[in-house]
């Protein structure tokens, strides 16, 4: 098979391994070293790491994470999820996460694809495909693992193959993306995507609360006002919010503040008191305690460590 001219998959003794190998070869050609690479296909990024990584803290938007080589773990408020070539990861709502690549080497790098998930696109797919026959297991957590099967790999291959024919992207990429998201909806965890896309479901209203918190995390929060904003009772919001994110709204807001604070601490020379104030803390000592509890070191030591390593 020519690297520059991908073909349809032939019959193979281990078809899933073969498909992953072909997809890996495409990702290798469009990545030159460790990093995240934007592509000509909107919402698609390729990922490569030649070595395991330190823990990185970030707020993730809704995303599908597909791995074809290597392993990675993410942590959500004490919960641990490991994904690899056999399992994809879906982040269905915006979440503050800690993640690191745990299996990678120069000869066998970590390779994967990240696809943005647009709830409006999922909603349209549901409307067009109804009844879509979405499975339900009763869980609504906004982070979950699913089994990577042949049809999903086929759709990913068709999408990545378009990188070799940019003139076809505008017409064919939407169809490949639509198939990928359709496969997610039909997967065993499909209800979790379905819930966030159906207007007026309780999970959809929790998503609106999450959006509000992300846009206003530095502001004081009153749970009764947030509940009124999303049209849920206070106890219902608290219960459903924790079911989706594993955190209460107040804990979620604190995570957002600390993630943004770390970004500011490591990217700017602003004094720590100013950083604390910018993310909504009135007490610098409380800020430093909570920062150290989450990240394992004080803001000043964290900044000093970065400067030494740089």
Automatic annotation (TrEMBL):
SUPFAM superfamilies: Homeodomain-like. Gene3D superfamilies: Homeodomain-like. SMART domains: HTH_ARAC. The keyword Transcription regulation applies. InterPro entries: Homeodomain-like_sf, HTH_AraC, HTH_AraC-typ_CS, Tscrpt_reg_HTH_AraC_N. GO terms for biological process: positive regulation of metabolic process. Residues 207-305 form the HTH araC/xylS-type domain. Keywords: DNA-binding, Transcription, Transcription regulation. GO terms for molecular function: DNA-binding transcription factor activity; sequence-specific DNA binding. Transmembrane segments: none annotated. This is AraC family transcriptional regulator. It comes from Pseudomonas shahriarae. The lineage of its organism: Bacteria, Pseudomonadati, Pseudomonadota, Gammaproteobacteria, Pseudomonadales.
């Amino acid at each position: 098979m020519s690297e520059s001219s991908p073909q349809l998959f032939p019959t193979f003794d281990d078809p899933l391994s073969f498909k992953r190998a072909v997809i890996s070869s495409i990702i290798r050609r469009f990545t030159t070293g460790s990093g995240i690479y934007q592509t000509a296909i909107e919402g698609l990024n390729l990922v490569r790491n030649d070595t395991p990584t330190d823990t990185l803290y970030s707020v993730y938007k809704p995303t599908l994470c597909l791995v074809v080589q290597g392993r990675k773990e993410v942590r959500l408020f004490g919960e641990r999820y490991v994904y690899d070539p056999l399992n994809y990861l879906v982040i269905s709502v915006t979440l503050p996460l800690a993640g690191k690549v745990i299996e990678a080497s120069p000869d066998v790098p970590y390779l994967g694809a990240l696809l943005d998930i647009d709830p409006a696109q999922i909603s349209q797919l549901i409307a067009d495909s109804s009844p879509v026959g979405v499975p339900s297991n009763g869980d609504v957590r906004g982070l979950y693992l699913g089994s990577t099967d042949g049809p999903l790999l086929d759709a990913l291959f068709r999408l990545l193959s378009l990188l070799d024919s940019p003139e076809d992207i505008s017409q064919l990429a939407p169809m490949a993306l639509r198939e990928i998201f359709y496969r997610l909806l039909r997967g065993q965890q499909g209800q979790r995507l379905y819930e966030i896309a159906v207007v007026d479901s309780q999970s959809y209203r929790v998503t609106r609360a999450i959006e509000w918190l992300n846009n206003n995390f530095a502001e004081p929060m009153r749970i009764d006002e947030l509940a009124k904003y999303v049209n849920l009772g206070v106890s219902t919001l608290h219960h459903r919010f924790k079911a989706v994110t594993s955190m209460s709204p107040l804990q979620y807001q604190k995570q957002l503040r600390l993630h943004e604070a770390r970004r500011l601490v490591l990217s700017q020379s602003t004094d720590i008191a100013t950083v604390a104030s910018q993310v909504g803390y009135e007490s610098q000592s409380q800020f430093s305690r909570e920062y150290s509890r989450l990240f394992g070191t004080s803001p000043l030591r964290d900044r000093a460590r970065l400067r030494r390593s740089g």
